[in-house]
Design brief:
301 residues, alpha/beta, Rossmann fold, GMP Synthetase, Chain A, domain 3, 2 domains, 7-stranded mixed sheet, 3-stranded mixed sheet, 10 strands, 37% helix, 25% strand, globular
Length: 301
């Protein structure tokens, strides 16, 4: 009988290299916000992949970047702290450069310092020529003894299975830490909040910086008059300035309406029931440097 393996795998990389997309594909469920913008993931998200002979617990970390606020420092600390806490590190880089940039080098130095068992994933290979990929593989090979180097396009689901097999191969024998029905340790409130934030970021594009925070005040399941299940959700989008508030609400409330509509569609799929979603927008100046707000982004494990 084949032994059962388990372990914790930290996904690290610079901002916007595709970590969250890769994680969602591996889990087969949406657990991380996916927006084509830097610094989208703020918390350490645990996601669970149950396989026939293994359980892999992923730690999706915030993208490592040059911090410009206390929130930025908290995000970087969360990512750094995950490296020694993991059995395996999944280091994601982009194929779009033929050399190791400053950000990747900083992460690599931390991996070297901790002597972490690491699998290198080179993402977005569909954007470059094969010669460039080979050159990048050789460059990284000369820098560190990786357990494996896997070039992928996150657009291809088949590449995800290769990563999972490589992780499983490098795990040690161990128990299942979570129930096999679970796929994340995030609460329902977390998932709702992140769904709303994702829609806001996608629709607002570059008009509002990442100073958006979503708080869910009400999350209650009840029955309609027709005795059908419905989730009543009330939530506030906090932003940094009055000018941002105006953009989020939009002319005649059109932008806020759009955010609510798209978020509700995703939430109804996720919850499998009708959703009544109410959104408000409030200004909370400089919340990204406010200790009270930042407590929830700190890794307390």
């Amino acid at each position: 009988m084949e032994e059962f393996k388990s372990g914790f795998v930290s996904i690290v990389g610079r901002t916007n290299v595709g970590k969250s997309s890769i994680l969602n594909d591996m889990v087969g469920q949406k657990v991380a916000v996916v927006v084509n913008k830097p610094q989208t993931t703020r918390n350490l998200i645990k996601a669970i992949v149950n396989r026939e002979h293994s359980q892999i617990v992923f730690l999706d970390t915030p993208g490592i970047h040059k911090p410009k606020s206390k929130l930025g420092n908290v995000m970087n600390d969360t990512a750094w702290e995950s490296i020694p806490d993991s059995d395996i590190v999944l280091f994601v880089v982009e194929a779009t450069s033929d050399k190791i940039g400053k950000g990747d080098q900083m992460i690599l130095d931390k991996i070297k310092e901790k002597k972490a068992d690491t699998i290198l994933v080179i993402n977005k290979i569909d954007l470059v020529k094969k010669e460039q990929i080979f050159k990048l593989i050789e460059t990284f090979k000369n820098e560190y003894n990786f357990k494996a180097i896997i070039p992928i396009s996150a657009l291809k689901k088949s590449d995800v299975e290769i990563i999972l097999e490589e992780i499983e191969k490098n795990l040690k024998e161990g128990p299942a830490y979570y129930d096999i029905e679970e796929y994340t340790d995030q609460t329902l409130r977390d998932l709702v909040s992140e769904t709303i934030r994702e829609k806001a970021l996608k629709l607002l594009k570059d008009e509002v910086p990442h100073g958006i925070f979503v708080e869910v005040e009400k999350l209650k399941k009840s029955k309609t008059r027709e005795q059908k299940s419905i989730f009543n959700i009330e939530s506030t989008i906090y932003c940094l300035k009055d000018s941002h508030k105006g953009i989020i609400i939009g002319k005649n409330g059109e932008m806020l309406k759009k955010i609510g509509t798209y978020a509700r569609e995703d939430l109804e799929k996720m919850l499998g029931t009708q959703v009544n979603l109410k959104l408000w927008v409030k200004v909370k100046e400089d919340w990204i440097n406010n200790e009270h707000f930042l407590k929830q982004f700190k890794n307390t494990d």
